[in-house]
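Lecture 7 notes: from sequence to structure.

We start with a single chain of 426 residues. Read the sequence below before looking at the structure.
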Amino acid sequence: MSEVITMKEGTVIVLISWLVVIFISALPYRICGLLNFSQAIFESTSGWTTTGLTMFTDVERLPKSILFWRSLTQYLGGAGFAVIVMSTLIGPTGLGFYQAEGHVDNIMPNIRYSARLIMTYYLLYAVLGTVALMFSGLNFFDALNHSMTALATGGFSTKSMSVAAFNNFVAELILILLMFIGATGFGIHHTFWSKDWYALKKNSEPRQMITLILLGGFCISLAGVGKFFPNWSEALRHGFFQVVSALTGTGFSTVDLKAWLFFPTGLFVLIILMLMGGCMDSTSGGIKQYRITVLLKTLRFSIKKFLLPKNSVVYVEIWKGSVKRYLDLQLVKEAFMIGSAYILSYIVGTFVLTLIGYDLGQAMFEFASALAGVGLSCGVTSPNMPLGAMWTLTLGMFMGRLEFFVVIYAFAKIFSDLLGPLRKKT
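Now the structure, written as tokens:
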């Protein structure tokens, strides 16, 4: 019988696997002479972490093979390296590998079957998205690439001006739907296709995302109409698109965000949404709506517990897909640790970028985009940016995608194994 991969071993395998796949995926950029080593690693990391920040200033001059390669790395990175391997090679012995990458949605008891279901949904959405975008007026190549990167919430585009180049309202609506689908957890998708409407209704993450989209969209539209948008129609159209792109961690844009450096309300709303992110076990980055739910329910529970008689027993339900859990110390601890790691890392990364020479607004926006795997840029990211800034953003993308503690635990495990024999000798 095959030996099961533990969570500790899984963290090491995940770390090494991601480093290797990023390095290998950077080779086409180097072989074609398009980017130097640091730029190629940045582009590859941006692809696999589904961030979307890019070193290419004019993607329309790139060969179609390179454009597709960029989209493919995001599409595979969105599903997760662990899901791909689990669905094809490791099977049920790799639960620790699967969980170490941040996945907890075992939508079926059999882990390999769960991974294959996820890939089936993912492929189905990509095909339907491509067909829908073609009906909206995009050619096959543009439709395929944008369908893949929208679902991956990655944001790599075949156009230098991103989605703005199409000026196609119908395509924008389709992309909004694809981005939302990509940012919704795979367990929720399975609940939907299983027609478990009761469990689906109990999941708070999609409702939270819709609420945040409505609030953020109206806030930006209201603040920008007559200033950055000529009328309400344009304000709602571009305001909501940017909000969905930020919250889902996609990074598509229909406006030039460099101009938004003079639109602090818009930048602030997008920064908050980028850090929040989409659902757990989705292709989205950020702190995740599930953890925000846990923290909000913990606050509500604390207040309720304070007001009730001393010996009262209160259970707080939290649904994830078709699985009902109850609020406990482990859930609260995990949500607090990841949330704190995001905030602390964000402060440090922003500070480093300001030391390099960027103003506070640029540093706050760009590092939030990198850390949460979004890809919206206010002009900081470029092939000519200082190496210190380039590697700061690269590290932010990598750590944010693996949610910090996978990397920390992996190095702890490696050092523990290396120092173990030495301790025994002494």
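DSSP finds 18 helices and two strands in the chain. Keep this in mind for problem set 3.
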